[in-house]
Specification:
Helix 2 runs antiparallel to helix 4. This protein has one domain. A four-stranded antiparallel β-sheet has the order 4-1-5-6, with helices on one face. Strands 2-3 form a two-stranded antiparallel ribbon. By secondary structure, the chain is of the alpha+beta class. The protein has four helices and six strands; from the N terminus they run ααααββββββ. It is flat.
Length: about 200
C-alpha cells in the first residue's frame, strides 16, 4: 500500500514538473524553423542571382546593339563571359545557355505563325490529319509569313541581326539549391531564365 502511495506521489510530481519542457518543445519545432530559414536563404539567393543575370544581360546586349566586334573571341562568347563575371562564380554559363533571335518587329517577338486549332489541343498538329471528313496532309492550316513552307512556332532567326533589327536575348540556366536534398522533386535544381529585347542601333 505504501509503495502504491509513493508511486502515485511520484507520478503527480512528474506530471507537474516543467523542467526540460522548453528543450523538448524546441526539439519538436526546430526542424521546421530550420527548414523555413533555409528556404528563405535559398529563395533570396535565387532572386539575387536572377536579378544579377538580368542586369548583366542588359549590359552584355549592348555588344550586339551597338555592333561592336570583339577581338579574339566571338560576340556570343563575349556576352557569356560578361554574365559569368557579373555573377562572381555563382554561374558558369556557356554559349549553349544563351539564345539570340532576330525579328522584323516587336509584335512578332516570341510568337509563331497563326494556325487553326482544329483538334482543340492548344498546339499545332502536323499532318496527315483528318478532321470532320476533310484531309489536311500538311497539318492544321496556318498563315504563312516567312515563306519557308513549314509552320514555325517562333518567327525569330538565330543571330545578332543588323542595323535596326529587333533582337531577343534569352539566358536559360539551372540554379542549384544548397539544400537540394530536401527537395528531391526538383533534384536540387530549378530552371530559371532571363531575357531582354533590344533594337539595334545604326552602325
Amino acid at each position: 500500500m505504501r509503495r502504491t502511495r509513493s508511486l502515485s506521489r511520484l507520478l503527480r510530481r512528474f506530471r507537474k514538473d516543467q523542467n526540460g519542457a522548453t528543450a523538448v518543445e524546441m526539439a519538436m519545432v526546430a526542424p521546421m524553423l530550420f527548414l523555413i530559414l533555409f528556404g528563405i536563404i535559398e529563395l533570396s539567393m535565387g532572386m539575387y542571382i536572377n536579378t544579377v543575370v538580368e542586369g548583366s544581360l542588359r549590359e552584355a546586349s549592348r555588344l550586339g546593339l551597338t555592333g561592336q566586334i570583339q577581338q579574339g573571341t566571338s560576340n556570343d562568347q563575349a556576352i557569356v563571359d560578361m554574365i559569368n563575371e557579373s555573377t562572381v562564380g555563382m554561374l558558369n554559363l556557356t554559349t549553349d545557355d544563351i539564345d539570340m533571335k532576330v525579328y522584323e518587329n516587336f509584335e512578332t517577338v516570341g510568337k509563331g505563325e497563326e494556325y487553326v486549332d482544329l483538334d482543340g489541343n492548344g498546339d499545332w498538329t502536323p499532318g496527315p490529319l483528318t478532321h470532320e471528313g476533310t484531309d489536311y496532309p500538311g497539318g492544321e492550316p496556318w498563315t504563312e509569313i516567312n515563306g519557308n513552307g513549314t509552320w514555325d512556332a517562333d518567327l525569330g532567326e538565330a543571330g545578332l541581326g543588323g542595323q535596326g533589327d529587333i533582337v531577343l536575348y534569352t539566358v536559360t540556366y539551372n540554379w542549384n539549391f544548397l539544400s537540394g536534398q530536401i527537395i528531391p522533386v526538383l533534384n536540387g535544381t530549378i530552371p530559371l531564365s532571363a531575357s531582354i529585347v533590344v533594337q539595334n542601333e545604326p552602325f
